[in-house]
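ugh ok fine here u go
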Amino acid sequence: MRIDAYNQIANLYNTTKPSKAKNTAEITSARDQVQISRAGKDYQIAKQAVASASDIREDRVAELKSSIQSGNYDVDTGDFASKLLASYYAHTNK
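structure:
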């Protein structure tokens, strides 16, 4: 390795010159700022709306209660069994 080549590279990057510390008044005068994009704001609004929404669909529950109480609620046993098995296999294959 040639020393001349190293000196030329060092001159390019000014590694041989000691760096001066900046004035602390200049550093403390600048403040960091955060700006939230429109998409981020929309996401926050949607997240709040979902969090405040009920997990239970009251209209559907009332409809099913009415069907059960009147005796009109009918369950397809084949459909029920296939969904039960699908749920079982989904949980056991994790």
